[in-house]
Every structure is written in C-alpha cells, then in structure tokens.
Amino acid sequence: MSSVLLAEDEFLIRAVLVDSLADVGIECIEAATGQEAIDVVRGDQPLIAIIVDIGLPDMSGEKVIEAAAQHRPDVPIIRCSGASAPSSLPPGIAMHSFPKPYSPSELSNFVASLVRKG
Predict the structure, then answer these.
(1) Confidence (pTM)
(2) CATH code of the domain in which 12 resides
(3) Helical spans, DSSP H, in the chain
(4) Total domain count, the chain
C-alpha cells in the first residue's frame, strides 16, 4: 500500500493530520524531523504524496522538498508554512503550497484530490 509522507515536528498537529488523512482512506508515514523525512524519501517505500512543514527542528523543510524533488520527481509535494516569506527553493520544483493555519480536513481532502488525479 502506498502512503503519504508527513514531515511535521509538532506531535499534536501530526496526530490530527494522521487521523484526518485516515478518514479519507490515506495511510501516513510520520517524520518528526527533516532527516527522518529525507531517509523515507531516499528509501523504497511507495509514496503517493509528501507533506512538508517548513519549520522542522533540524533543518528547513525546503531541504526535504529539494530531496523529494530529486528522489521522487513524480510524487506530489505539499509545502505547509505559516511564514509569509516566499520560498527559497530553486525554480522548477513542482509543489503545492498550503498556508498555516489550515483545517486538517481541508488538507486531507486536498491530498485525496491530488492522489485521485495521479
């Protein structure tokens, strides 16, 4: 079964999103740090989408997005950020932006719609 990688350091946000994604039939692989997320991205676990919080404790989520774009170019990437600063990612990385705060059900439904399109 393919899963969504959820890179989010805040436990409560992560837990609510895992439940919300499960409600729409999507399983999650959780990563609380950027390095955990990069390890999953570089691994061989099938992924159907990657959700990345920009404010991870050990590195910017944008480093995770760069690794995801390199290792999983066909997997949709969703960048979540409460910061109003523009992305510092190089041009050409395809991703969707989802501003914080967001409703877990809105994000889950958005992910489900991306997965169905793919």
Answers:
(1) 0.93
(2) 3.40.50.2300
(3) 11-23, 34-42, 61-71, 104-117
(4) 1
